[in-house]
Amino acid sequence: MARVYNFSAGPAVLPEEVLREAADEMLDYQGSGMSVMEMSHRSKVYDKIIKDAEQDLRDLMNIPDNYRVLFLQGGASQQFAMIPMNLMKKKKAGYIVTGQWAKKAFQEAKLYGEAVELASSADQTFSYIPDCSDLPITDDMDYVYICENNTIYGTKYKTLPNTKGKDLVADVSSCFLSEPVDVSKYGVIYGGVQKNIGPAGVVIVIIREDLITEDVLPGTPTMLRYKIHADAESLYNTPPCYGIYICGKVFKWLKKMGGLEVMKQRNEEKAKILYDFLDQSKLFKGTVRKEDRSLMNVPFVTGSDELDAKFVKEATEAGFVNLKGHRSVGGMRASIYNAMPKEGVEKLVEFMKKFEAENA
Ligand SMILES: *Cc1c(COP(=O)(O)O)cnc(C)c1O
Question: Domains along the chain?
Answer without folding.
Answer: 17-257 (3.40.640.10), 258-359 (3.90.1150.10)
